[in-house]
Automatic annotation (TrEMBL):
<protein>
    <submittedName>
        <fullName>DNA alkylation repair protein</fullName>
    </submittedName>
</protein>
<dbReference type="InterPro" id="IPR014825">
    <property type="entry name" value="DNA_alkylation"/>
</dbReference>
<dbReference type="Pfam" id="PF08713">
    <property type="entry name" value="DNA_alkylation"/>
</dbReference>
<dbReference type="InterPro" id="IPR016024">
    <property type="entry name" value="ARM-type_fold"/>
</dbReference>
Amino acid sequence: MLVWHGTIVLCIQKLEEINVESSILTLRKMFEENRNEQNAIHMENYMKNHFKFFGIKSQKRREIEKHFFRETGILKEPFNQEFVMELWKLDEREFQYAALDYIEKSLKKLIKEDLRFIERLIMSKSWWDTVDVLGPKAVGAIASKYPEVIEETISGWAISDHIWLRRAAILFQLKYKENTNEELLYQYIRQNADSKEFFIQKAIGWALREYSKTNPDSVKKFMAHQKLAPLSFREGSKYLSV
């Protein structure tokens, strides 16, 4: 059962009337009141103990967020980088998930200049759970509206020393379907095909598998001529007869 004190709900004001620090304090209280230590142990173990957790499962967390967003009116305001960054600094992983959900609900508001901010998030507290939202959703949305950022920024990520930037580059077209620039997709994959990194190999396979739903013949032909890690090949060929 979802729990929070009525006094907390009553004290929430519109974002324009309070500062970011106050709004995050309110969210913290909501999360604290729904803490589950047993769940936290399992969630921390699942994430290899890289992060602390309140132990709030996704469905309940989103119920809390829904109430928070509605009461603060933050989603009616321009995209707020400060709000996201303050959430990103906090220890419990649910705060980063709240930031990701806020970003996802704000995709139409993102502008070209937000890409460098998203880049900072990709490179901070990096793991698959954050990067796999930021890459296909935030970066994907910005690149769709401002395709010049591909050459200006994203192509540099594809050959970066930072594995999570490379993963984001490989995955940013994940939901583009028929709008996928397959030449670019294959270029990024070729540039990373020799990587020994699990998360790069997995990203390559995932990107190929997803694009195979749109253009199976193209993916099949590419995989027949491009040497891939066994993991990438296995993941990429899931829906193909190869």
